Amino acid sequence: MHENFYRILKPTKVGNTEIKNVIKYRDGINITSKSVPRYEYFRGVEGEYVVDFTDYVGVEDLGDKVKVKGGTRWRDIIKYNVELWSNLDFSVAGSVYFNDPIFGFNEFGEIRDKVEVDAIGNQNPYLGKYNGGIIINVYIRKEIREIAHKVKYDTKLENLFDIVRKWYAGGIPPFRDVSIIKKDEEIYLSVSYPKIREGLVKNFINDFNDINKIEYDSLAYKFWYFGYLDFIKFDEIIKKIYESKFSIIRFRKNKIAYSIYSDKPIVGLEKSLDYSTLENENLFKGCILCGNCITVCPYGKQNNDIFYTPLGFYSFSYFNQVGDIANCHLCGLCEEVCPMKLDITSELRKNSSLREINPNYIISVIKPKSSVLVITPISEGFYDLIIKSIIYLVRKGKKIGIIYLPYNFSKIVKNEINLKELEGVKEIYVISPEEYFYLKKLLAKNIVDIYNIQTLILEELNINIDDVHVPCLLRSDVKTNKIVCSNAFLNLLNGKDNINKEIKNKITLCPLTGKELGIPTPLDILNYNSDHNIANKILDRIKQSINDVGDVLEDINWYSGIDNMIYENLYSSIVNSVIKDESFENLITFYFFAQKLDNIDENLKKIIVSEIEKIIFS
């Protein structure tokens, strides 16, 4: 199935060539003469045999220059102070291969004229200026001089072009780069030059201003058009620039290099380079195949497959080959990095087939109040954490209720359920990141505050955040750059068994992770002692008290079937005499463990539970 992805040549075109083989490039691998390279997800060329360089990334600092592996993006080498660059989302080798417009066009010309490459042409490796074939590495010189950047603003492109035209009429102005930039409604002429040339350029830029930052271009638009024109043909594209959202028009003696970006199709740029979106119709529901989602997607990492990401979902939707690619936990990290601001989770939700996470009815409690602890199939097995949560909240002065939601949790994940039980509730407390994240989304339109007890406790504990495992579902609530998915919840949803064992933190905010990896949660380390045997101890005392009044029970036996309240009142009195002096901690522990005791009459169990509820929920 994955081979079909390499038929995609750009967001607006899919090739017809059947892909026979795809290999991921690594050092020393043999490349056949029939192979074509793939340096980026969003553009490629047709060929039966593809060499994928998208993972072949890295930079080696050689002093006066850098050696850049083929798939490395410009975004990742700008910090090396290179003397030229292109669109930050393009790969460096891709820019040479496709001959992208570059910063420095006035001084350097086209990128192929300036950089050197390690490449394979006609199956023979060579080092030097690019002369066809597959590029492995690119060598770019570092800038050793300070570069100055100046700008002049205007409201009309024509006025700025008149300035540029006059400059070139008298020769070549001594700038590194000369560009007209249009961003939204802003238009300006930008020049850059080594400061050592200040005396040479001062007559050109008397009325120019300093600029605080350089304007880089990136793939943040639905349609893009790149190409070269004769200098005298600038007038042909003025209207197109006005139509665009963002454009950089670079100048050289007899030539113009243009990069034009728009959120709607622009007609009339047919002479653009082949990878431009000339077909003017996106084939992938608005996805431009930038690949940003790959770096953040937990589902892709769980499967160790870049196509188990939104990139794969949108790509293979075109071929009707989605399969289980949509079966993620809808965390939304992809939406935070998507330049198109696509509603990705809604699309995934419509196409996912998640495993059911059904209730075990270990707990069956509905004690509503305005503030409640919500228990679901995710948390119902964590008795200790539930008990400690209630103790923690009560000690904070909260009058807390409990609501158990006995529903397939996958329906909560997919927003397919109406939780009427929570109507009227003002505050919800939960113990897991899953409950916190999905209930927040499900109840977004309700006037209700939702709190994760684990993060509340974390704020009170003197713990170094670097020692804490923060799952992706809590990224908005805990300030840290180290967000890691353990796959524990993903495994439940899609039936896989791939826990992330690289998590070595001392504490986790995810009980599911803690259970899998033996890491405590903040609730676990709270100094609340709960005796797990307390239920049996209290029950034994109740049974003993019942035995002590056996004669009385036998005497009123004749009420049986006539007025059972006599029996129930007596039992209630006995139970209450035993539990009334127990600590709150013992009572709440007994309350939960009593519900799963099987060495007790069901009627007596109901009476015990009822008497405890009168105390702890009063």
Descriptive report:
This protein has 618 residues and is α/β, with parallel strands linked by helices. It has 5 domains: 2-141, Uridine Diphospho-n-acetylenolpyruvylglucosamine Reductase, domain 3; 147-262; 292-351, no CATH class; 356-528, no CATH class; 534-616, no CATH class. It is built from 20 helices and 24 strands. The strands form 6 sheets. The protein has a 7-stranded antiparallel β-sheet with strand order 14-11-13-12-16-17-15. The chain has a 5-stranded antiparallel β-sheet with strand order 6-7-10-8-9, with helices on one face. Helix 16 packs across helix 18 and helix 19 packs antiparallel against helix 20 (602-616). The mean pLDDT is 91.
Which SSEs are present, and which pair or pack?
Blueprint: E1 8-10, E2 13-14, E3 21-24, E4 35-38, E5 49-52, E6 59-61, E7 65-69, H1 92-98, H2 105-108, E8 116-121, E9 124-128, E10 134-141, E11 147-154, H3 157-169, E12 177-183, E13 186-194, H4 198-201, E14 209-210, E15 223-230, H5 238-243, E16 246-252, E17 255-262, H6 298-303, H7 310-318, H8 333-337, H9 344-351, E18 366-367, E19 371-375, H10 383-395, E20 401-404, H11 409-413, E21 427-430, H12 433-442, E22 449-452, H13 453-460, E23 468-469, H14 488-494, E24 507-508, H15 511-517, H16 534-548, H17 550-555, H18 564-579, H19 584-594, H20 602-616
Parallel strand pairs: 3-5, 4-5, 19-20, 19-21, 21-22, 23-24
Antiparallel strand pairs: 1-2, 6-7, 7-10, 8-9, 8-10, 11-13, 11-14, 12-13, 12-16, 15-17, 16-17, 18-20
Helix pairs in contact: 10-19, 16-18, 16-19, 18-20, 19-20
